[in-house]
Amino acid sequence: MSPSPLTPRIGAWFIGARGSVATTATVGTLALRAGLGTPDGCVSELPEVAAAGLPALTGIITGGHEVGEGSLPKRAEELAAGGVFPTALARALCAELAEADDRIRPGAGPGGETQRAAADRIQEDLRAFRDRHGLDEVVVVDVSSTEPPAPDTPELHSLDLLEAALDRGESPLPTSSLYAYAAFRAGCPVVAFTPSPGPKLPALGELALREGLPWAGSDGKTGETLLKSALAPMFAHRALAVRSWASVNLLGGGDGRTLADPEAAQSKLRTKGQGLEAILGHPVDGPMHIDYVADLGDWKTAWDHVSFEGFLGTRMSLQFTWNGCDSALAAPLVLDLVRLAARAREAGEAGPLPALGFFFKDPAGTAEHDLGRQWQALTDWCTALGARA
């Protein structure tokens, strides 16, 4: 089903456009438009969220930046072979995926290009994408590899100092933040789906407010942390004292390979761990491991052991195993966030969007981690947006 001429057309511009999540999201948009799939897993299709008056899923067109080689049709074949979606679907959409691949531009990588030049080039790519396809809005979504935490330097705290450093030919920004900087300057909302620094730096927060742009983040909540944010309130509300919560995460694919680097894993471990203490109200003992297992491909497994005390100090435990397909869990949320961020921009909102904390491990603009309360905040916001439509 194609959108009508009056349906808002929204661009989803992926940083890491040939990665697993971006490819799955692109396949999803094409499949829905062709009537070859259903929007299972898309929170934005639920009545409470759709009440915001969101742009249609079938009106989303994708593009992006990528530093790697390959093509979307080839990547889709690889993901289909790994069981992420049916092989027949990848074959049926091969021509459309090739067209989407033509909308991918070279990303910012190591080389002779200054960050100022790279930012200017990225801005031009975004504006050209918007103009060429007659889009009402372009939302930039970072689904690239996780970066280490950003250094604490004056340039990252002040927009004036940052601009001056870029003008001098310096490179003060982490790559994820360079994309966010360019996106804001091009007039695009940003979604930080990874724990990388991205738009979270104070200087970029200043830029977003100056340009009147919303942003959402960070680190999409798709698996084990989603379960924690649902289960931890149960212990708190039943006055059961959690003594330890140990977690082992086994990841394959590019994300697992990246997180095998201890420096890159710092960002992920921090966002995975902070919600539990916030919900329970006290520190919780227990190790948390992320291990790379190449054989798992795009799948991930989490093993958790929770030790808790009940009445008169009786010791008990909960153990669970989560086995999920990372891209199939993340892709619909990415499309949700594109629609919600576009609607927020249309409604004139700027800065971090705390109501979208429901989607993230490290929610921007709020300290709330309880999944039920996050859901209430999201649906209340969507109702208010709908009333303003």
From TrEMBL:
Pfam families: Inos-1-P_synth (PF01658), NAD_binding_5 (PF07994)
Domain spans labelled Myo-inositol-1-phosphate synthase GAPDH-like: 223-327
GO terms for biological process, alphabetical: inositol biosynthetic process; phospholipid biosynthetic process
SUPFAM superfamilies the UniProt entry points to: Glyceraldehyde-3-phosphate dehydrogenase-like, C-terminal domain, NAD(P)-binding Rossmann-fold domains
GO MF assignments: inositol-3-phosphate synthase activity
Family membership noted in the UniProt record: Belongs to the myo-inositol 1-phosphate synthase family.
Protein name as annotated: Inositol-3-phosphate synthase
Species of provenance: Streptomyces xiamenensis
